[in-house]
Amino acid sequence: MVEKEALKEKEAEVQAKTHYDDNMQLYNQKNVLAKQGKKIIKAKEVPFEINRQGIVRYYSAPGFKELTNDDWRLFCHEIRQHSGQHRHQGGIYLFVIKGTGYSIVDGKRYDWSAGDLICLPIKKDGVVHEHFNLDGQPSRWVAFRNDHSNWIGHFIEQKETFSLWKEKEEEKEKSSPGKIQK
Q1: Which of 84, 127, 129, 166 is the most exposed place for a label (fewest CB within 10 A)?
Q2: 163 CB contacts (<8 Å, ≥6 apart)?
Q3: CA–CA distance, 4 with 114 (Å, rounded to integer)
Q4: Distances (CA, A) of 128 to 9, 103, 108, 118
Q5: Could you give the 3-state DSSP secondary structure of residue 124?
Q6: Sign of the CA dihedral 152, 165, 101, 140?
Q7: Is 54 left (phi over 0), alpha (psi -120 to 50) or beta?
Q8: What is the pTM (predicted TM-score) of this model?
Q9: What are the CA-CA distances from residue 141 to residues 5, 42, 94, 96, 138 (Å)?
Q10: 95 near 141, Cβ under 8 Å?
Q11: SS3 of 137, please?
């Protein structure tokens, strides 16, 4: 009995820094950002990038620590012909702001145009999807995703790479000094 009491006392010893203190520090940092963080993001300050999925402009994502809220992923995707194809859990809304096209979601086609909302469901094994432009003019949609991956796990699997990205990668490989050309 004495050993159990001694063990309880040892477990309850006051530590200089606790997990509770760490959590409170994180909450306080979020409160400071909510008050003092960046409140507006100008499009001209955020360049488009070419990546495996296409031509994308990122406004917000976890890790963008200067924002008032870093729990959201928000990005604009320009679809000129088609995007890359990938799979993830879903749980993302795509609001079409310009153009007409369609998305292939788990093998099924869904047509869309400006003003439509594309809703990718949350699924255990993920949602395979890609997007296509129909009208010959660049289409754009804005993606809204709460960072729910903390709750359901996170994975993303690239299935097919955006063609312009693939071309740029091949050009880089050819022009890299010291590489043996095939």
Answers
A1: 166
A2: 81, 82
A3: 68
A4: 53, 10, 10, 14
A5: coil
A6: positive
A7: left
A8: 0.69
A9: 62, 17, 6, 4, 10
A10: yes
A11: coil
- Write the DSSP string, 64-108: -TTBS--SEEEEEEEESSB--EEEE---EEEEEEE-EEEEEETTE
Tell me how far apart the alpha carbons of residues 93 and 127 are, in angstroms, rounded to a whole number: 13
CB 90 within 8 A of CB 122: yes
Q: Any idea which of 25-34, 54-63, 112-121, 143-152 has the lowest mean pLDDT?
A: 143-152
Give the model confidence (pLDDT) of 2-48 as tens digits: 676 666 666 666 567 788 888 888 878 878 877 888 888 899 999 99
Contacts of 68 (CB under 8 A, 6+ apart): 33, 34, 35, 37, 38, 39
- Quote the tokens at residue 17: 């820094």
**Cα(133)–Cα(83) distance, integer angstroms:** 9
d(CA 155, CA 26): 25
Contacts of 100 (CB under 8 A, 6+ apart): 111, 112, 113, 114, 133, 134, 135, 139
Q: In what order do the strands lie in the sheet with 117-120?
A: 49-51, 54-60, 72-79, 139-146, 92-98, 117-120
Indicate the SS3 state at residue 110: strand
Contact 46, 59 (CB under 8 A): yes
